[in-house]
Amino acid sequence: MAHHGWGGRPPASDAEARQRIVDATARCIDRHGAAKTTLSDVANELGVTRQTVYRHFARIGDIVGEVAAQGAESFVDRLVAHLQGIGDPAEAVVEGMLFCVRTIPTEPRLSTMLQIRDAAAFGRGATTADAIAYGARMLHRFPVDWAAAGIGEDELSGLAEIIMRLLTSFVEHPSDPPHEHDRIRALLDRWLAPALRPPAVLAHGGR
């Protein structure tokens, strides 16, 4: 591992070097956006050569993917905190989706999840097996007793896939003119929420 450059503070391990490259890439994305961030930008940010960066990542897309993955973890923490106290599965899913629709487009690091194929959660990779499994793990963290709501473990993957597909559509392909959030909530309440409510509740008109 090279010990020159790095702003005079060489990393102590390969793991530290990789994390500092990821952090530098995140800063570049904040300034320029993911699409305009190059490997040269990252190397300049760190005060190292391109070859030094290549020792740890084969291409800029791999680094951006790691930025997206780490951003996804932080984002899910915030999402779960936002949902605390909402135990109803339909309400939690609708509110969670609205939180995503509001938040993802406004933050450059989260938006990288929409711009790369191998992102951990959203975007064009949102329907891969790994992404759906990630979505199911995310649902496990919701403050919802899924079993008590009649939603089995084997059904969470299907729910995760539907959520990922809908989120990708809402965020990447907004309506023209864009829907207000109240309109999106109304759509989800009408067409998604009923699938998450027990049949007995639906049969009695919600009573």
UniProtKB/TrEMBL annotation:
Keyword Transcription among record annotations: yes
Signal peptide (UniProt feature, chain positions): none
Keywords, alphabetical: DNA-binding, Transcription, Transcription regulation
DNA-binding region: 38-57
Domain called HTH tetR-type: residue spans: 15-75
TM regions (residue ranges): none
Matches recorded under Gene3D superfamilies: Tetracycline Repressor, domain 2 (1.10.357.10)
InterPro entries with a match to the protein in the record: Homeodomain-like_sf (IPR009057), HTH-type_TetR-like_transc_reg (IPR050109), HTH_TetR (IPR001647)
One Pfam short name: TetR_N
Superkingdom field: Bacteria
Keyword presence, Transferase: no
Name the UniProt record assigns to this protein: AcrR family transcriptional regulator
UniProt source species: Actinomadura algeriensis
